[in-house]
Amino acid sequence: MAKYIIKRLLLAVITVFVVATLTFFLMNAVPGGPYEAEKSISPTAKAALEAKFGLDQPLFKQYLTYLKNILHGDFGPSLKQRGRNVNDIIMTKFPVSAKIGGISVAVALIVGIPLGCISALNRGKASDSTIIVLATIGIAVPSFVVCSLSMYLFGVKLRWLPTVGLTTWKNYIMPVFALSFYPSAYITRLMRSSMLDVLGQDYMRTARAKGVSQFVSLFKHALRNAILPIVTYVGPMMAYTLTGSFIIEKVFTIPGLGGEFVSSIQNRDYMMIMGTTIFLATLMVFMTFIVDIVYKIIDPRINLK
Amino acid sequence: MSEHLVDIKNERLSFFTPAGEVKALNDVSLYLEDGEVLGIVGESGSGKSVTSYSIMGITADPGRIIGGTVEFNGHHIEKLSEKEMRKIRGKEVSMIFQDPMTSLNPVYTIGNQIEEAILLHTDKSKAEARERAVELLRLVGINEPEKRIKQYPHELSGGMRQRVMIAIALACEPKLLIADEPTTALDVTIQAQILELIMELKEKLGMAVILITHDLGIVSSMCDRIAVMYAGKVIECGSTDDIFYTPKHEYTRGLLRSVPRLDEKESQRLVAIEGTPVDMLNPPAGCPFAPRCPKCMKICLREMPPYTYFSDIHYSACWLNQKEEFENAGKEES
């Protein structure tokens, strides 16, 4: 096990390194730069700024400097948000996104798994059809529609929920609803098909022949086998959800990390692009690792080598 | 109350599928005594498994018993609720299945799966159940049971897993063991071992066994009586000797002809039964075997033949038998 973890750790470092390298050169290959669009800047000021952040150096040298810095855990200064470090920005914004994201993942699991099970157990009946229709809607409707509609209905028309900020628990309801909408539907469908598959397995018949009650046969014998595809999906989904969603943060004016992914690219804030990308990549690699460990715990057939 | 351990009378069972009603069992009558071994043979879809599943009350959806009675050990199975049925399953009647590779839950240790059956039906504590599980594994011939009990199904071979399945089935010393093609998925050498084990345990525990198979070789060596099923009907039933030496139904004869024999010349070819099995969605009006029968008569296509009894236990459903009996009766009179 220790050997496996060390191996995975090494692989993780290589993965993040490759992501960082690709992002660095792709980003620089895109036309434009952090100070191109701002007309007010004089050529001298621009040159001074570029010199300050080392942007006047040859590209490969910039790359090496950057690598050296991130090895020390330093993502560098933001090129656009004056006086702020990328580290600081991530550290202040990530917790905000992670809180909403974490709740959303929990909601998606709490909603999706039981619905999927109910649907599978009542295959072909009215409850199954209803759940399938709901889940299909959940997958098909884009999140900005969910955001705007719920905001209009509950925030503007009914005035039940606040529309801006994150001061009380009520503020969380709509963003969490919007953010967990798609994953709930996806997990429902995944759970349904995987459960149907497991219910048809021979060992379920064995359990029944033993005299096991339906409840035990579902929770002990079926669920543990059927949950594996959900684990696979939830790992990477968690990495995305915890780092926030651009749309949901914009609509509900949440100061989260999700917005930074998009705005940093629009601004050509090279340091910010690198910082957020490496952060997401690391989180993703970590989540995949967790998924593998959880897999091993759930299914003894899986051999971690 | 019937004096038999199992007494099935005129059972009808259908699967109500979207394509229509599949009449899987059509007037099946069978009985089984305490400690007896009954072999049920027949081709795929003939209703062998469905019959035995209905004794356990585990008929798969959308199947339902729509007529007749199924009595087991004093219980009227067709009238019991699911909850009452659960108390009988695994305790009074157990089952082992065809494919041991998939019949055990991959995510639990075999110990856990054996103990589950014990804990369900007895008042034993967890520790006692574990002891009993070790004892059972030893009984079914698994070496180092204390070690095996902590292993997962994928760590055992197919033969070993079938032994574990038998251990689970025997956990509460049932009165009846149903073995649904227990050796089909196993190597030939392992097959013999498993069958021997079943017979040995039957003697030791004094239980009755229903052996479902399409392998006539197996039934000949193991069974007291044999029931031959075709298209959801028992078309011939008798002692093993009756079936092998004086088969009365054309289908039984066909089955016997299709078995390779050691004393035959190499050049002799095996005889196959012509035609295809019956479409159970639209079963024919007369004898279901008539379209494939080499000696088919007009009446065979119109009406289902009644049983002709050759002895107390040997009977068959064929118009030819009826004809012979009629002619014999005529001779005796004159």
Radius of gyration of chain A: 24 Å
How many separate helices of chain B?
13
- The whole-number mean of residue pLDDT values of chain B reads 89
- Shape-level CATH architecture of the domain at 91-270 in chain A: Orthogonal Bundle
Polypeptide structure, described:
The complex is a heterodimer of chains A (305) and B (334). Chain A is built from 13 helices and no strands. Chain A has 305 residues and is an all-alpha fold. In chain A, helix 5 packs across helix 7, helix 6 crosses helix 7 (169-199) and helix 10 (228-242) packs antiparallel against helix 13. The longest helix of chain A is centred in the middle third of the chain and has 36 residues, at 86-121. Chain A is flat and about 85 Å long. Chain A starts with a helix and ends in a 7-residue tail after the last helix. Chain B contains 13 helices and twelve strands. In chain B, helix 4 crosses helix 5, helix 4 (110-121) runs parallel beside helix 7 (158-170) and helix 5 packs across helix 7. The N and C termini of chain B lie far apart (43 Å). In chain B, 45% of the residues are buried. At the A-B interface, helix 8 and helix 9 of A face helix 2 and helix 4 of B.
How is the secondary structure organized here?
The complex is a heterodimer of chains A (305) and B (334).
Chain A: H1 2-29, H2 43-52, H3 59-71, H4 86-121, H5 126-140, H6 143-157, H7 169-199, H8 202-210, H9 214-226, H10 228-242, H11 246-251, H12 258-266, H13 270-298
Helix pairs in contact in A: 1-13, 4-5, 4-7, 4-10, 5-7, 6-7, 7-9, 7-10, 8-9, 10-13, 12-13
Chain B: E1 6-17, E2 20-32, E3 37-41, H1 48-56, E4 63-72, E5 75-76, H2 82-88, E6 93-96, H3 100-103, H4 110-121, H5 126-139, H6 145-148, H7 158-170, E7 176-180, H8 188-205, E8 208-213, H9 216-222, E9 225-230, E10 233-239, H10 240-245, H11 250-257, H12 298-302, E11 307-309, E12 315-317, H13 319-333
Parallel strand pairs in B: 3-8, 3-9, 6-7, 7-8
Antiparallel strand pairs in B: 1-2, 1-4, 4-5, 9-10, 10-12, 11-12
